[in-house]
Write a structure and sequence with these properties.
heterodimer; A: mainly alpha; 71% helix; B: alpha/beta; 6-stranded parallel β-sheet; 4-stranded antiparallel β-sheet; 11 helices; 13 strands
Chain lengths: 226, 419
Amino acid sequence: MRRRIPIIITFVVGTALILAMFIPHAPFSSLDENLSVYFDIIAVFAFILGGGNLLRVHLTKIQRKKRDWQYSFITITGFLFMLLIGFFKVGGPPGLRGDFLAEGSWFRFMFEAVFNPLQATMFSLLAFFVASAAYRAFRAKTKEATILLISAFIILVGRTPIGHYFTFWLPEQLEFLHIPTLANWIMGWPNTAGQRAIMIGIALGVIATSLRIILGIERPYLGAEK
Amino acid sequence: MLHMERACLRYGRATLFYVVVILVFSVGLLSTAAAQEEAFLRPLVAEQTPAPAGIPEVHDTPYDAGGSITVSWTLSPDDGGGKNHVSGYDILRSTSRDGVFETVSSVTMGVNQYVDTSTEDGIDYYYRIRALAGEFFSDSPPSMAVMSSQQWYNVERSNLLVIAAILSFFIVFYITRAKKGKKLFIRRIAGLEAVDEAVGRATEMGKSILYVPGIQDLDDVQTVAGITILGSLAKMIAKYDTKLDVPVSRSMVLAAARETVKQSYLSAGRPDAYNDDIVHYVTDEQFGYVAFLDGTMVRDKPAACFYLGSFFAESLILAETGNSIGAIQVAGTAQPAQLPFFVAACDYTLIGEELFAASAYLSKEPRALGSLKGADAGKVLASLAIGFGVLFETLRVLTGSPAIAKASDFIIRLFSLRF
């Protein structure tokens, strides 16, 4: 019974949500929205679970002086510091209704002066990783990699002003060989066709997975087992 | 003294007489001026007042959840023609034909339809359209009464219903066949065949396996697929007694993933090897999570990294870091924009649908495999529809035949989604 009830709930809710796609009448019309609210409510409580888990894992690490426990100390300090200055709105407007992100609050300062730059730093790593990944992917070792390299070169050059100057002298009959035209063709035809093929596959995969979950064949929310 | 008083009185009377005369004259002059001005302005006002829009046609917006009326009208002759000075229209609404009409919204010139989504079901409404030209305006006659209501079926989505029904039929059909013991052929997926290799390698090296189920919550089907695959993988890992590390970025994923891993360890007969810290929460913040994962990879150097779920900008950061430590990497996502990054930096990539097929493929559970065959049947149908669409559209261009054009339009309508 412990397993059957969640499966029945999943079946009923899944079926109702599918029906809601085709029935605009109440209560189906607002079903999706209402269930999203339920999800958010559950997520709020689950967040306490997440925060508790974070504390437990890192406090254990510190207590047992496991390898790199210093990082755990920084994590816990940062977590508790932000939690407390946000909770008590340190430096912000007093009272319950005041905004914890108000101008002058410590939380806002930490968010803008520490969190945002750190986040931007991580994101900026992408530029270097794109270069290194492109170097590996575009090495003309195989036939496919060579095609990839040529396509990438055409698109890179075709999307910059220099691409125009390389082939602007071509006569009108050979306009299709103009690099920006080739770049647009690659993006508009082979690329779009490939993306759409993937999207169709994904859509069918999503339908099959959803049906498996609704019918109780797959039940990751229960712990995967039959 | 008496003489002076009489003189003053006479003088006062004369003054009063003159004041009255001047006033009468002034009033006369003013009224003449007003009449002259009115006579002067009348043609000007008539000149500037736009011709009214046509009588509004109103109907309950079809196939909706109520609370909506669609109003359409013929444009004023002075909109795009005539004096061509109409700047827009006000949509006026009243609950009685002769009552006070209030403005509900405005649209610009050239627009002849408005969907009023602020109505209450079951109440009669009347509409007028006010054509505006600067300070001047003219109102159309009122519309017929109209009432909004909810509908029980969205006819416009019938095509979707038919497609969904056909696909569901095939999926259920193949599931039933698989349940009866019919052997189903599933093509080899290299990325999933590599799972054994990755786990074996980690076991031999005595290193851990890092599993990342994406950065989205449990309401994303990719995350669900990622957790389902984790279940099969964890069973294998439990048998090999390899260390598994599953940092997650959502609390609900934490709960689901922990339950899944626990169950897998139990069914592998290794409950002793399970501990709650295998799956642990890090942070909801995208790049905070990435920083943690990168740090873990660089410090712990896991032998294998799995990225299966929904990923965004962090995909390449993770995959390149994994590559730099020499880990065997298997990735899978249904985000088409992230697939090239995974393909470039990982050893194996599950492309789109393969992510959703992975759990069935790994579990070899007949019913799950049956659903894959059902999805394959859907692919055959999609290919046929694309083929016919291309054929009819080409023939339409070549021949211009109305019958072929009709067939082509039908196929386009069949696959057009209206939301």
